[in-house]
Amino acid sequence: MMKRFLCAPGPTAVPSEVLVEMARPLMHHRTPQFSEVVAENAEMLKKVFKTSSPVLTLTASGTGGMEASITNFMSPGDTIIVLSAGKFGERFAEIGRAYGLNVVELKAEYGKDIKAEEVREALKKYPEAKGVYTEYSETSTAVAFDVKGIASVVRETSAIMVVDGITAIGAMEFEMDEWGVDVAIAGAQKSFMIPAGLAFVAYSSKAEKLMKEAKLPRFYFDLAKERKNLEKKTTAWTPAISLFMGLNVALKMMLEEGMENVIKRHYLVAETFRQAVQAIGLHLFADVPNVRPSDSVTAIRVPEGVDGAKIPAYMRNKYGVTIAGGQGSMKGKIFRLGHLGYVDKSDIVVELQAMELALKELGYTFELGKSVAAAQEYILKNFPVPNVAVSEAGD
Ligand SMILES: *Cc1c(COP(=O)(O)O)cnc(C)c1O
Fold it and tell me: Locate the Aminotransferase class V domain: which residues (predicted)?
């Protein structure tokens, strides 16, 4: 047998509490019992999004939420500004073009981000723009965009600020209302610790005004319809019932830990990874310190002379640890260690030791164990010590 660990930046590991809940006999979705779950989840999601707006749960992967953020607020021919420096930013632009929008793509090289000042200039140049669409954590490059700064620019205009917060919301600081984010999107299989199949979308009153004039066709992802249904503690269509049940347990775990602690844990884990990989001479792909690295995934440049495409394959097939390679043109050039959702100190060591073994086999020269040791040093110094009694008897 080979013991397997899912350490990708989505889908992520699911805690056993959630798996057990999802294995229960199915509940019918048009019942008072399920309505309680719908309402309770929605309340808890507001605490994760930090918003007073309703947070809708769509039965779709994250991309469904992205698509809804276009179709519900725009009309054919409308101009949108898309910040694009990776695969997911590009996806926003592709969806916009698929729906006949005039997409102004603000591009930066992979590994970099687009600064608030550039967005300010673009909004001056395209005052007709109805929306600014951006990533928060660009999962393909492991770069975090300055969403707070960008939102402060967009909020001075009539455009709405739309944030793909999948791999950020629930892992990194996010204040939807306070920052002035108008549409926020999150996804189940990333920081929410449940399997793929749910997308979460919230929208502000500024976005709601735009929605009322928006003429793009929509049916399944009709957010106004979902909002009306949520008021009645239900969903427009048959939801992924088991996922709603699992989400209920996962959200309770997150809120019990406290969002501040969840976010701090993600930061500490990410920082450990960053220190550890650099201790064996590896380089981050994110253009640090010009950009902020994401706290949910670390992208690493494949070292000279190593066959990069083999790193994830070796780690998964020989050592049981699933990470992610580079997407598209970055295949073979980077590899990505995921660390979001159900992650803690021990996961760091699991990933690093497998990474070291794969790199060693693929010919990279370094001292075995050094990244693991660096991680352990960092953990000892920086991680909070849990407040539990350690009995001398060892029980
Ligand atoms: C995973 C991810 C998505 C959504 O992808 P799906 O496969 O549709 O769930 C979108 N944006 C980002 C930043 C992601 O990490």
Answer: 26-329
